[in-house]
Amino acid sequence: PPSIQNDSCDTAVTESNRTIYRTVVKKDGAATNYQKIVYNWGGVFFFLNDNNITQTTFDQDIKQAKAAFPK
User: Fold this and answer.
1) Buried b (16+ CB within 10 A) or exposed e, 3-31
2) Residue 41 in contact with residue 54, Cβ under 8 Å?
3) CA 68 to CA 71: how far, in whole Å?
4) Tens digit of pLDDT for each residue in 20-42?
5) Vertex 54, ends 48 and 56: CA angle to 5°?
C-alpha cells in the first residue's frame, strides 16, 4: 500500500480587497483546510474547512498541527 504523508503547507493569495492565508494539514490521509482572510477595511475572518471559527481556535489548532510536524 502507498504510504500516507503527514504534512502541513502554508500559502498566501493577495487579491484586490483581501489577503487569504491558507494552511492545509494532511494527517492520516485526511486534509484539513484552515483559512485566515484579512480584508483591506480591517475585517479578519477565520475558517476551518468552510466553517467560521474564532481566532483562538484557529491559533490553537495551527499551533498543534505545526507541532506535530517538526521541520
Assistant:
1) eeeeebeeeeeeeeeeeebebebbeeeee
2) no
3) 10
4) 999 998 888 888 999 999 999 99
5) 105
